[in-house]
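Supplementary Methods S3. Complex input for the 2-acetamido-2-deoxy-beta-D-glucopyranose-bound model.
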Amino acid sequence: MAKRSKIVVVGAGMAGLTAAHKLYKAAGAKEAFEICVVEGGQRIGGRINTTEFGGDKVEMGATWIHGICGSPIYEIAQNIKALESEKPWECMGHLFEEKLLAAETRAEGGFVVEHDIVESISSLYETLMNISQGKVEKGDFSGIQESSIGSFLKLSLQKFWDSKSEEEKLAKKIYGNWSKRMLEEAVFGVFENAERVHTGAADLFNLDYAAESEYRMFPGDEITIPQGYTTIIDALASILPVDMIQLGRKVIKIEWSKSEYCESHTSGRPVTLHFSDGSIMQADHVIVTVSLGVLKAGVLNHESGGGLFSPSLPPLKKDAILRLGYGVINKLFLQEEEEGNLCKTPFMKMAFHRSDSEFRHKNIPWWMRKTASIYPIYNNSSVLLSWFAGKEALELESLDDEAIIDGVSKTVSSFTSNSNQVCNDKMDSKDSGFLFRKVLKSKWGSDPLFLGSYSYVAVGCSGDDFDTLAQPLPRNDKDFDSPPLQLLFAGEATHRTHYSTTHGAYFSGLREANRLLQHYNFLGQRRICASLALFVTSLEGGMIHP
Ligand SMILES: Cc1cc2nc3c(=O)[nH]c(=O)nc-3n(C[C@H](O)[C@H](O)[C@H](O)COP(=O)(O)OP(=O)(O)OC[C@H]3O[C@@H](n4cnc5c(N)ncnc54)[C@H](O)[C@@H]3O)c2cc1C
Ligand SMILES: *[C@@H]1O[C@H](CO)[C@@H](O)[C@H](O)[C@H]1NC(C)=O
Ligand SMILES: *[C@@H]1O[C@H](CO)[C@@H](O)[C@H](O)[C@H]1NC(C)=O
Ligand SMILES: *[C@@H]1O[C@H](CO)[C@@H](O)[C@H](O)[C@H]1NC(C)=O
Ligand SMILES: *[C@@H]1O[C@H](CO)[C@@H](O)[C@H](O)[C@H]1NC(C)=O
Ligand SMILES: *[C@@H]1O[C@H](CO)[C@@H](O)[C@H](O)[C@H]1NC(C)=O
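Predicted complex, serialized as structure tokens:
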């Protein structure tokens, strides 16, 4: 029988499974290809990881379907009925969302910030983001330097203040040690901190301004998946033969573009994958879906001979990998103590003093000071959730549970101490007491299979870098002697307009599967003589040869 082309997909996350699913399902492909998915971890799903905590289903990674209209993830979720559940789930439904939006903003010290201040800053922030996304004219904010989102926001806030009357500028203290201006800055900070999490850019001064308008969102509601995000992964994997996905198969080197591959390898396949257990696998095509973090580490270690690719990737590709931003975002779940008459932590957004302020509460740990909010995962849940970005997120990974509980308790105390309706005296007497009994946190930064959470456009790069990353190798115009499409790249960080999302990963997997299907065009051309099986299949499939 004629040899089938071997396609190896590295990584069983959204991109890898989508590619395998598409290839396997394509008419005739089963006969034409030998498909294999190798996954370094002990589970499929990658950055999608639904688990349980305190009796509730929680998402350690991907959480939201970012806009349901046109989302392929939403379509799958609908088809498999993953959008219905008897039990409450993380961030369920509209009422929850409204509650979250309406959540009070509290200032360090325990005051609820008055509505007018929150409103004016919220509207300012929204206007600025609308400008950066190219939705509205710059208006009052024209002429502002816009190299990064961070600098644009900072200068715009200054301009907002400059436009105020002298009277308004008067720095009168309105709550405790807070002046109006300090408070406005802190409330603005809540939005910036939420932005750090959304974009993955822990430092907004490193988030490119121009690229912001290229990012696309689907219209419609943003929802979570009642049955868990993992159901989407399971649905994609369910049609694949069980032995197609190999777990615990960490790739440590990918040899490609060998000029004498025919002689040196009996299989005659141009790519060799080396695994951590010393085994190897040969392939005609490898779809690499590892995270941008893993790629960065893989191209950096090259000098020491420890690089992921041999030969190393061409400079253009390597530069794009190194230039693009890739952030660490972590989620922290805390289960609240429900016994006794301890008060419940409210849904709240937290406006902190600047970290250099003399007024800051010294018992709030630094790694909490950029946390935008804390809220129960559904209306009435005893499980609370906060998101962390950057070095705060990394610190969280290294702290033990007690230190986390202590730090969060102290922070919550500082934000509720002045309001009797939320907290009683008991709270004060238990100032550093353990309000929480259990924690669960993600560790995306230190996990060697991820080394971070999702990508963004850093200052100094552009959307072009995503496209460069997506280009297959070898480049046919240059290396026309080598077999084509040895390395293909998929994954969230290869999608120019939907990067950082599950649907971006999905589209990228589809794109690379289609690239191969098109290359092998069952309608004929290139490889028609290479594989009898392919030829027969095409006929059976009713396709016409030229
Ligand atoms: C905390 C967090 C929250 C998020 N929230 C959302 C959200 O709300 N909505 C949304 O749309 N997206 C969200 N995302 C992003 C989304 O999860 C990712 O964009 C998407 O899942 C990435 O899929 P992927 O296939 O590109 O990569 P991955 O899921 O990373 O898959 C790559 C796979 O490769 C494996 N691998 C790595 N190295 C090797 C190796 N050397 N050998 C073999 N296998 C290897 C990994 O184990 C992994 O399984 C979030 C991500 C995180 C971390
Ligand atoms: C921002 O843009 C959205 C959608 O384009 C619009 O609905 C909203 O009113 C705008 N917000 C502000 C403050 O201009
Ligand atoms: C804040 O103001 C109060 C008075 O409202 C004062 O007693 C306190 O010392 C101030 N705190 C700091 C840290 O300066
Ligand atoms: C959540 O609580 C509010 C009252 O605080 C209530 O109006 C709403 O119906 C609740 N939502 C759900 C989904 O239970
Ligand atoms: C919320 O929880 C309380 C007790 O924990 C319970 O009595 C109440 O019925 C719950 N409400 C909803 C809407 O689930
Ligand atoms: C995925 O979830 C499991 C718990 O089900 C956990 O042990 C593991 O650490 C999680 N992975 C990451 C990267 O957070």
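The pocket of 2-acetamido-2-deoxy-beta-D-glucopyranose (ligand 2) is lined by residues 123, 126-127, 130, 135-136 (CB under 6 Å). The radius of gyration is 26 Å.
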